[in-house]
What we know:
By secondary structure, the protein is mainly β. The protein has helices at residues 55-65, 142-152, 159-167, and strands at 3-4, 17-19, 22-26, 39-43, 46-48, 91-95, 111-115, 230-236, 250-251, 273-277, 296-300, 308-309, 313-314. The strands form four sheets. It has a four-stranded mixed beta sheet, with helices on one face. Strands 11-10-8-12 form a four-stranded mixed beta sheet.
Amino acid sequence: MLEPMTETMSPPVTGMVWIPGGRFRMGSDEHYPEEAPAHPASVDGFWIDPHTVTNAEFAVFVRRTGHVTVAERPADPASYPGARPDLLAAASTVFVPPRHRVDLRDPYQWWTYVPGADWRHPQGPGSSIRKMPDHPVVHVTWEDVTAYADWAGKQVPTEAEWEFAARGGLDGAEFAWGDEFTPDGRHLANTWQGEFPIENNATDGYLRTAPVGRYPANGYGLHDMIGNVWEWTADWYGEHRPAEHACCAVTNPRGGDRDASHDRAVRGPRIPRKVMKGGSHLCSPNYCRRYRPAARMPQAVDTSTSHLGFRCIVRP
């Protein structure tokens, strides 16, 4: 079990859940290389939202502040020299399943840059969130996430804070609820069933996002820490560095470095990347088994997608 640090106080915002803090084993040596090495870490206590920010909650923020998300604005040509004009239109990235088997090494086989796709229109023009007020808001960039958090008087969790909360008191467990993915055949998270990306059997009940809270909470009372949508964290993306964790737990670690977080293999502008956590409804056994607390992926700060959202915390 995790080693708790005791501290209690009234929630700063109604409904937020107190996470006691403590020491835990962060990362994993059993899966993808970016998760290794597993190492000791500790975090101080904090309050966290029990679920990701919903469409209805984000709509209140937009209505009161007039915020226009990055996906709703044309891109600045100066920031993307040499880009085709059609790629500078207001747009976002949408999952579009191919009609036949494709090379799983090429995500552009199923990710499409769709003009008119944004948080109000998650699949592009013609789609709507009118009947989805309790679904997680998506198509939000890092700029949008921090704008919401600042307005709400909250912060975005670090990778360590997020992973500690996701584990729900089960230190070293494979998933947020234990070591079996579907105990007694029961789906405990919104993920992909079938052969990704061409066949989703939706035996968990959902083809895309699910309303928040439809799956059981973890040991801390938090919903959807695994699956449904990936979640932004505050850390710049970088490798876990073994030398930093060789002897003892680092308290409240902050990972990565902004200047080193961009993908050197990608041509064009060097866009810094943050760590995203938790996996999404697109994670499947045959591709991206990242529906686990230890899993992590880089996300460019200027890019929004149809399977990425966020939740907030408050540090005392």
